[in-house]
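Ticket #4471: complex job returned nothing on first submit. Input attached below:
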Amino acid sequence: GESVGLHLPTLSVQEGDNSIINCAYSNSASDYFIWYKQESGKGPQFIIDIRSNMDKRQGQRVTVLLNKTVKHLSLQIAATQPGDSAVYFCAEREGGTASKLTFGTGTRLQVTL
Amino acid sequence: ETGVTQTPRHLVMGMTNKKSLKCEQHLGHNAMYWYKQSAKKPLELMFVYSLEERVENNSVPSRFSPECPNSSHLFLHLHTLQPEDSALYLCASSQDPGHTEAFFGQGTRLTVV
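Support reply: We reran it on our side without changes. The output follows.
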């Protein structure tokens, strides 16, 4: 039969606008969070990370916000460019088990000209 | 180039075959990982090695057998696989086994027939 893949939510953003990609995590014991970018045909690429003792961290054109109260993580991309088009997914690391990592399903970002 | 090289890029194997996936990292990292990315599920962590010692086995069936002969090389030996094992298998490395700023290879696209 026909295989059905994951249904990824899609965010469509105009070039130059800011993008906000959201992620809900499940484990209140998670102590470390990572955002990855995956372009078609490539492996995931580390973008930015944040530890649970922080609520905001900024990188080059990207900002990650962490709200532990509602177990929510977001990735903000400033001045979105066509090269930002990709699937973005978050990952949470369980505290106390440094190697156990769980990934979200991902969001597809489409940048329109 | 991420500094993590996987071979082969594509592999088709029968259910009775035995094959191996290879990963090599040129980053001087101490930890290496195997992940599975299938069309129907989020990215899944399979195995974690730290200084050639396995530190995480994420309930992976025994038909997948990892080997880490040194900190730069990681193998995934495959035998008697099932069609549902068809997926993109990704290798990554990081300085420590906590997944911090991990670099991924481009993956091996495996098809089991």
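The mean pLDDT of chain B is 93. Closing as resolved unless it happens again.
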